[in-house]
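Appendix B. One record, verbatim.
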Amino acid sequence: MEDYLKTRGRIFDIQRYSIHDGPGIRTIIFLKGCPLRCRWCCNPEGQEWAEHDMLIGSKMRHFGEDITVEELMPRIIKDEFYFVRSGGGVTLSGGECMAQPDFASAILHACHDLGYNTAIETTGYQKWELMEKSLPYLNYALMDIKHMNSAKHKEFTGVPNEIIHENARRFANSGVSLTIRVPVIPGFNNTPEEIRDIAEFAASLPNVEHLHLLPYHRLGEGKYEGLGRTYLMHGIEPIKQEYMEMLLDAAKKSGLKCQIGG
């Protein structure tokens, strides 16, 4: 048996039949842990490495499962029919999947060996030498660029953005298909100028063609109550469609193929 199949990591969820996290129908594996603390995060249960319980409605649910790649793969393989029929595959998300670089690389390796299309969703906040371990087994990356101003990025996410932007350049030069995502957040990056600046940066990256604007939503707000935490975006309303269309027009001036959602 290959040694990488014995690699152990920690997950907190598996989502099936996704059509928004890479090409085709996909199975999403959510890995525990994230170095960012984005105020709007819709998966706060994935931020901490530690296992914990969260109240959902009237039921308590446990988040955090230690598992080897060998143990995980049967759960993925049962969705193979959908991968083959749709051109889909497996996407690693989180948390931040690159916070567990050895585990992430081993999962992608196992999926690659079976011929599955592989993808990651990443903030890009990790040492490049750890991220590049996954490159031989990776087809597609969805990477967030949240703001061009490092101080504002740190204010709203807890970390500066220089390493993120440098890793975006490295990904773009790696041969992996890269799509840039922008979570559009009121009071943070929702002006036409801020979106235009991000789009122009994305357009400057080689081999990047697509940019997705992801409108702010409040679907994760209830999770904070279930975790006994304060939701820092409480009272902030979602952005209206008309305004998102205006931001889309600003992004399209970069020459990229831009869309809302995805």
